[in-house]
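Input sequence (171 aa), recorded before submission:
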Amino acid sequence: QTQLASRLSEISGLTTIVCYPYLQPSGQPAISALKQAVRLGIPALSIEVGKLGNCEKSDVLFAKNAVYRMMAELKMYENKKVKATAPPKIKYNKQAYVSGPGQGIFYSSFKAGNKVIKGEEIGYITDVFGRNVKIITAPQTGTILHQTETLPVNEGETLFCIGYTNKIKDE
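Predicted structure, C-alpha cell format:
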C-alpha cells in the first residue's frame, strides 16, 4: 500500500510529498476516513492545498490535475489536457510530532516550510502573565510541515509536525 501511495504521489506532480507506512491497530476505532481506508487495506492519500483555508484558484487547479494524473495511472480516468510533470522536489518518509509540554500561551516565529535543526528552540509556552513556562525544541532535523495556529494550548496538543527522511532499503 505504501509503495502504491508513494508511486501515485510521485506521478501527481506535487512538489512536496510526505509518504510513510501507517498501521491502524485493529482494536482501536478509525477516527478518520483516511485511517479507515488503511484498516480496510486501501491505499490512502491526502492532498492539502492552501494555508488556513486560503488558497488561489491556481492551487486548486494544480491539485485537481494531480488527482487526474493519479487516476490515469490507475486506469480510472484520463484527462487529455493534463500532462505528466517532473518528479517531486521534496519527499519525506517520516514525521516527528512536537506536543505541548504544558498549558499556556504558545509563541513561535517559525512557520510551515521552515527548516529546523535537532535541539533548536522553535517556540515556547508562557503562563497567562507572560512568564516563560516551557521552551520547545525540535526533536528532529527537518522541515516544519504544519503547526498549530492557536495561541492557547493544552498539555499534549500537537504544536508542530516536522517532516524528515530516513533512508530505506529498496526505495
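Checked by second reader. The chain has a mean pLDDT of 84.
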